[in-house]
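ARCHIVE CARD
CATEGORY: sequence design from structure
SOURCE FIELD: tokenized fold
FIELD CONTENT:
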């Protein structure tokens, strides 16, 4: 065997520095999973039936153009069908966006800490991540993000509201930011948690995209719609960008099951949004209780809360795990806790209270 063969295939050196995506820990039989910002509810009946019906034909490839879902989305958002691009979860659409805009030598700007896939998908494309620290209030530092723009910048990812802090950017700041970004740089408004927003001063990205050819919106069926396991998300983007997304996406990525369940979800939206409202009310209750316990808390507009625990992050996560609640620690920074079913939230609150008293 030659030396080269013994060493195995040569892989791209740029992969060496890339962390692998860490999923939220799975819950054991006797614990609650509050680590992945999932929706705690079971699928609505109509949605489950649509998925089950589609399961009967999984010997066939899905509709590659996802015509029915695309048209449903186009109608709902009042955009041309050509502006809708689907993917296996919005994370894969985000990856397609990076692949469509940035390669070696190019830069991708995003806030940090934000969605942990951003640096990964940037480096997978061979591009350079430019993380810009959040402000002391856990918000995007839009001025610093503008200052980070160079002639090599190709893409800016804006997570609104931000994962993991839950803080949302309001209209005047976001409009000012978009006006200052050069028109040849694509700005992605990642609105994975849009449906949980209750601050009316936060703009709808779809409205911002309409008159701005360099703005694109990302949405997902994984969170409010409760289809995380089926993997379907989408971008709304002007035609050149949407067309590029169809080129960089993996063909036949979105299964028929996912397509049909997503269509059924849109048609069952009223019922779904009642559930979302219940989660928002739980968020209000949990946030108030945490403040009552003495935790300094930023206002979350998403389906999770953020505790900046610094050095105590890992200890808190361990204490929560021991009590039966799996949370998401970012060691040295803080813990993100999804708003789940009431019993899970109550258990989390009792852990938080005990921890607060201890330190
Ligand atoms: C901000 C943000 N964007 C995108 C995603 C990806 O979600 P999905 O790929 O399930 O649509 C997530 C998931 O956690 C997220 O937090």
């Amino acid at each position: 065997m030659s030396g080269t063969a013994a060493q195995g295939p040569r892989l791209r050196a740029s992969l060496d520095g890339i962390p692998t995506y860490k999923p939220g820990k799975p819950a054991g039989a006797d614990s609650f999973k509050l680590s992945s910002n999932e929706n705690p509810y079971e699928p609505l009946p109509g949605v489950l039936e649509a998925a089950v019906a589609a399961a009967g034909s999984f010997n066939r490839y899905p509709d590659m153009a996802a015509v029915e879902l695309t048209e449903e989305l186009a109608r709902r958002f009042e955009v041309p069908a050509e502006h809708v691009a689907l993917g296996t979860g919005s994370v894969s659409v985000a990856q397609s966006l990076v692949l469509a805009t940035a390669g070696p030598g190019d830069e991708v700007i995003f806030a940090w800490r934000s969605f942990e896939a951003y640096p990964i998908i940037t480096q997978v494309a061979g591009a350079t991540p430019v993380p810009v620290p959040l402000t002391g209030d856990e918000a995007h530092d839009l001025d610093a993000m503008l200052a980070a723009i160079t002639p090599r910048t190709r893409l800016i990812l804006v997570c609104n509201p931000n994962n993991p802090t839950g803080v949302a950017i309001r209209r005047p700041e976001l409009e000012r930011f978009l006006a200052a970004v050069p028109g040849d740089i694509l700005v992605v408004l990642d609105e994975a948690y849009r449906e949980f927003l209750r601050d009316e001063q936060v703009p709808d990205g779809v409205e911002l995209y309409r008159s701005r050819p360099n703005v694109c919106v990302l949405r997902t069926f994984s969170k409010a719609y409760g289809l995380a396991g089926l993997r379907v998300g989408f971008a709304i983007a002007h035609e050149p960008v949407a067309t590029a997304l169809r080129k960089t996406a993996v063909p036949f990525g979105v299964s028929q099951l996912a397509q049909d369940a997503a269509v059924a979800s849109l048609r069952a939206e009223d019922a779904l949004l009642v559930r979302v409202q219940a989660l928002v009310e739980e968020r209000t209750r949990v946030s108030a209780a945490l403040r009552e316990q003495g935790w300094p808390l930023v206002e979350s507009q998403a389906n999770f809360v953020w505790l900046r625990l610094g050095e105590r992050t890992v200890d808190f996560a361990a204490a929560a795990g021991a009590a039966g609640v799996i949370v998401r620690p970012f060691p040295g920074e803080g813990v993100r806790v999804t708003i789940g079913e009431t019993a899970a939230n109550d258990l989390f609150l009792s852990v938080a209270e005990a921890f607060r008293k201890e330190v």
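CARD ANNOTATION: The chain has a mean pLDDT of 95. Residues 37, 89-91, 115, 159, 163, 190, 192, 220, 222, 228, 233 surround pyridoxal-5'-phosphate (CB under 6 Å).
SHELF: design records, drawer C
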